[in-house]
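Notes to self after the Tuesday call (sharing in case useful).
The group wants a holo model before anyone commits to mutagenesis around the pocket. I volunteered. Ligand is zinc ion. Logging inputs and output together so the record is complete.
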Amino acid sequence: MAIREIITVPNPVLRRKAQKVTRFDDKLQTLIDDMVETMRQAPGVGLAAPQVGVLEQVIVVEYFEKEEDEEREDAENLPKRLYVVVNPEITRTSTETVTAPEGCLSIPGYMGEVERFQAITVKGQNRHGQPITLKLKDWTARIFQHEIDHLNGVLFTDRASKIWKPEAVVEDKV
Ligand code: ZN
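Result:
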């Protein structure tokens, strides 16, 4: 495994559409392992392949199993769930939306207020090509929407109602 460089704006790769993955080969496995390591090292709660300069439809997300754990002081030691999704697609969205602050590893130093669906269903494949369906809500659903946007060349700043430069970035970066 290796840490890859996270590309940042205005790198034009971040604006291109990622290709569908058709070969679940060793190269893909290495990419996924590297993405997980890079996300953890950043640290971030999600990463899309275009953020490491690879235009393929792959995302990784790692977040608390119980979302409320994020608020706890001992959060570091509480269980997290790692998601690896290849060719993810949002197939259902809630009518309810939530507006909350977001950041991005590819746009360092900025935050924005972004409206997202409160809950979504994501279909895709696991790292071996088997089909998976995930029903996600709240912050995990937000992270997935942010990462899937990256696969379409969309950045949170395109959707944000308000963008600012916080003195200290405390929010999760994706
Ligand atoms: Zn991002």
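Two things stood out.
Residues 104-106, 146, 150, 174 surround zinc ion (CB under 6 Å).
Residues 109 and 167 are 8 Å apart (CA to CA).
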